[in-house]
Design brief:
With about 475 residues, this protein is mostly helical. It is built from 20 helices and no strands. Helix 1 runs parallel beside helix 12 and helix 12 runs antiparallel to helix 19. The protein is globular, with a radius of gyration of 22 Å.
Length: about 475
């Protein structure tokens, strides 16, 4: 199981790494072409869209990997996209009624215009989620990675073209985002169409089987939908609260700071989740024991997440200033503040699907109720003190406490020792000492060339340590490179 899990993760991660390489190269360009307030306007729309997309199919997309056979999976898929379509129609009605008022709520008149695209965004996001879970079930991880690559690449091309043909504006930044999203969705749909149509024909799915799936997995709309809604809302709270009390520029700093560490991390986390969920569900159905795959996944999460996030927590401000331009230094400070909570979110996100495997959606909802209460408390304390940084510190601390609690619950209920988890976490946390020389140069010499050189050396050292100390990584890399034992 560990080999198939590891191979699946590495295959999907390779595509995601290429995608993030494109993101890494293009972000400094886009950040210099568009002002922070433009990013703030776009982020408000993305936050609204994220919340609505997360519940657009009443979470029935999660039942796709849980289906016992092809007929169950297809029934779940059809049910998910049907509900998403209905949700998109309802959102159009709401936009028609309230879009003029929405701009005033966030002191952003442009938002009223952007909201007309919300129904399309919901449809793309909801159906896209169903496609991704179906791709995971049938092992088409490469299709997911290609779709992400196309989305980011074409979004960048449109943004740059807009600036040179017209001029930099929030409309241009928004257009690049939505068109890139649409093209990635269309490509994923094309890549999976043949398999899906074949499965629909062979499974002979009908309304009765779809109703049966809706009834069998009724806990998803009853519990998980509300749980996800509250969790997503609590994650997006800084955008809404900062948008209500401060300027779009502050939201722009927050969005870039959060995006540049959360987006790559969430894509990596999503890659692991796409592999973990179907395999863990299969293990549970066959053996009623997922302790092995939970331990393996937790270890991989520590290996992948701790080192880069600790880098940001220590060197966020100088790194952002160097790569994005001096005006984005404040975004780097925001990233440093958020880094701790993003680390625990990264480690928690894939493993939280254990709720659905164990059919414990009620527990998930209880956790998320607590999360939104405590996150709101942390943010409002900072707002009352009149400082967005203090608000984000409170938010980050409360978020970290929430994710740690979820991790403890998941490990305990998966029969994984908490001592084991702490040992693994501390082992890879110690690797942060490899960043110490870069920190010294940034603090005392302030020469970013030396900082980058020592950072690169630190990462090379860390990769070599993983290669020589982890048997699976050593075996996998050796096989791919054709390195024979003993040479």
């Amino acid at each position: 199981m560990s080999i198939s899990f590891g191979a699946g993760v590495v295959k999907l991660l390779f595509g995601r790494i290429v995608t993030q390489l494109v993101n890494f190269i293009t972000t400094p360009i886009i950040s210099r072409l568009f002002r922070p307030e433009y990013f703030g306007v776009r982020q408000i729309f993305i936050s609204i869209s994220s919340i609505t997309v997360s519940v657009s199919s009443l979470r029935y997309e999660l039942s796709i990997p849980l289906g016992k056979d092809k007929k169950d999976a297809i029934s779940s898929f059809i049910l998910s996209i049907s509900l998403t379509f209905i949700f998109s129609i309802l959102s159009f009605i709401l936009v028609f009624l309230f879009n003029d008022k929405a701009g005033g709520w966030f002191n952003t008149p442009e938002l009223s215009f952007f909201l007309w695209v919300l129904p399309l965004s919901i449809f793309i996001g909801g159906v896209g989620n169903a496609l991704r879970y179906y791709a995971s079930r049938i092992g088409k991880f490469g299709s997911i990675a290609i779709s992400d690559f196309v989305s980011i690449s074409f979004g960048f091309l449109i943004n740059v073209s807009w600036v040179f043909i017209l001029k930099a504006s929030s409309v241009g930044l928004f257009t690049g985002y939505i068109v890139g999203l649409l093209l990635g969705f269309i490509l994923l749909f094309i890549l999976l169409t043949r398999e899906i149509l074949t499965d629909i024909k062979e499974s002979k799915t009908n309304l009765r089987s779809i109703y049966s799936i809706a009834k069998e997995f009724k806990k998803f709309p009853i519990f998980d939908t509300w749980s996800t809604l509250m969790n997503t809302l609590s994650i997006q709270l800084p955008v809404f609260i900062l948008g209500s009390f401060y300027t779009n520029e502050i939201i722009g700093y927050y969005s870039q700071g959060q995006k540049l560490i959360a987006l790559p991390i969430s894509m990596l986390s999503g890659s692991i989740s796409q592999v973990f969920f179907p395999l863990a569900a299969k293990e549970y159905n066959e053996k009623s024991d997922i302790s092995g795959i939970v331990k393996s996944t937790f270890k991989r999460l520590c290996q992948i997440g701790i080192f880069p996030i600790i880098t940001i927590s220590i060197l966020g401000a100088p790194i952002f200033s160097f790569f994005l331009g001096q005006r984005w230094r404040e975004a780097g400070v925001f990233a440093q503040i958020l880094s701790v909570s993003i680390l625990f979110e990264f480690m928690c996100s894939p493993l939280s699907s254990v709720y659905d495997i164990f059919q414990r959606q009620g527990t998930s909802m209880a956790f998320n109720v607590g999360a939104i209460v405590f996150r709101s408390f942390g943010l409002f304390i900072g707002v009352k003190l009149g400082n967005p940084k203090i608000a984000l510190i409170g938010y980050s601390l409360m978020s970290s406490a929430f994710y740690i609690s979820v991790l403890i619950w998941v490990l305990y209920n998966s029969s994984v020792s908490l001592r084991y988890a702490i040992k693994i976490f501390c082992k890879y946390l110690l690797s942060a000492f490899l960043i110490f020389p870069a920190f010294i140069f940034s603090y005392y010499i302030a020469n970013m060339i030396f900082v980058v050189v020592f950072l690169v050396l630190g990462y090379i050292a860390y990769i070599l340590i993983l290669y020589f100390t982890d048997p699976f990584i050593h075996r996998f890399v050796s096989q791919k490179l054709g390195i024979k034992k003993g040479l």
